[in-house]
Amino acid sequence: MVRADVDLVADIGEVLLEEDAIQARVAELAAQISADYSGRQLTLVSVLKGSLPFMADLMRHITIPLRIDLMEVSSYGGTATESSGLVRILKDLSSSIDGSDVLLVEDIIDTGLTLNYLLRYLRGKNPASLRVCTLLDKPARRLVEIPVDYIGFTIPDQFVVGYGLDYGELYRNLRFVGVLRPEVYSS
Ligand code: 5GP
Fold this sequence. Notes:
With 187 residues, this protein is of the alpha/beta class. It has a single domain, classed as Rossmann fold (3-Layer(aba) Sandwich). The chain has helices spanning 19-36, 52-61, 113-123, 182-186, and strands at residues 12-17, 42-48, 67-76, 86-91, 101-109, 129-137, 150-154, 160-161, 177-180. Strands 4-3-2-5-6-7 form a six-stranded mixed sheet, with helices on both faces. A three-stranded antiparallel sheet has the order 1-9-8. Helix 2 (52-61) links the parallel strand 2 and strand 3. The longest helix is centred in the N-terminal third of the chain and has 18 residues, at 19-36. The relative contact order is 0.21. The mean pLDDT is 93.
């Protein structure tokens, strides 16, 4: 159930990335991707739910023909702010990616465990190429080294919400990325 009394903006202690900065960077990434994939069979695969706003904005800035597909995964065995690396696929790809140039669109890479699992899974589906685009990168906590081809912003080791990212399923609809006040976690 949605807690209707939560004041989303008041719960934010610090804004890390303003809406304008996010939009400008997404447009830059899209221009780079449009140039790099020109003449190729581009399929964007996004991972729900956190990547939804990023995917929606990124694809509309890309100027070459593309297909999209969506997966949904959940990590389990972790906590509200820590991933465990154990990944369950809740929604699989709808179409074959055999022979496609796949670009995996992620919200954030933290330990890298989720991405590592997804890349191994997608590689098994025989794409012509497989690369990664993430809005946010938190390299401080990386446990598996993974080459990331497109990075929106590198951020410090803080738990962030907004622009798709949640805490307890809330805050995804904020248009900026911020850090919650410490009281929010303890309440
Ligand atoms: P990893 O497996 O790389 O540790 O974590 C990837 C997933 O953990 C992300 O897709 C996201 O769902 C979640 N995650 C990691 N860091 C953050 C964060 O700072 N904020 C939020 N809201 N989710 C995060």
